[in-house]
Design a protein that fits this description.
Blueprint lengths: L1 H25 L11 H11 L5 H21 L3 H20 L19 H16 L6 H22 L1
Length: 161
């Protein structure tokens, strides 16, 4: 059952990060609640937060979120993708959300941004995947299982000779 739990966690995180990354890179799912999106708008937002070079950072963050999310779907390089996305999440918390406090803006006040509670949950889940890995139902898990099988076979051969 641990494998199933990690699949659910990986897929949930993947949906969130691919959606955010695709919005930053290509402006997908643009609308009144999320804004226009795309690299130029993301770069402008990063520049307003004092993050420079803003365009390069927008490309980097968008690629990390999109590619990292896609890697989580199949569980490939999970222990590298999760910390990379964790660093992006920490950057978001520090530069974009920390000043707004802990709670999300549930009332929709336009003069107040979002707090960091959702990012904290994402960060905790990403840390779990960093420490545990993708699980048995992932490409990483299959690679580990085949490596262990090969090592056990070599050990049996050495024991016979």
């Amino acid at each position: 059952m641990n494998g199933l739990g990690l699949v659910v966690l990986r897929l949930a995180l993947a949906v969130v990060f691919v959606a955010h990354g695709a919005h930053k890179l290509f402006g997908l799912w643009a609308g009144p609640a999320i804004g226009v999106g795309g690299l130029d708008m993301t770069a402008q937002q990063f520049a307003s937060l004092g993050l420079n070079p803003s365009f390069l950072l927008a490309v980097t963050v968008g690629v990390v979120e999109t590619l990292g999310g896609l890697l989580l779907v199949v569980g490939w390089f999970t222990r590298f993708a999760a910390p990379a996305m964790g660093l992006v999440t920490l950057l978001t918390m520090w530069k974009g959300q920390w000043a707004n406090g802990f709670f999300l803006n549930w009332t929709g006040l336009t003069d107040r941004g979002q707090g960091f509670e959702f990012s904290l949950i994402l960060l905790g889940a990403l840390l779990c995947l960093t420490f545990i890995g993708g699980g048995e139902w992932s490409l990483d898990g299959q690679r580990e299982a085949s490596r262990a099988s090969r090592q056990a076979g070599r050990a049996r051969l050495r024991g016979k000779f």
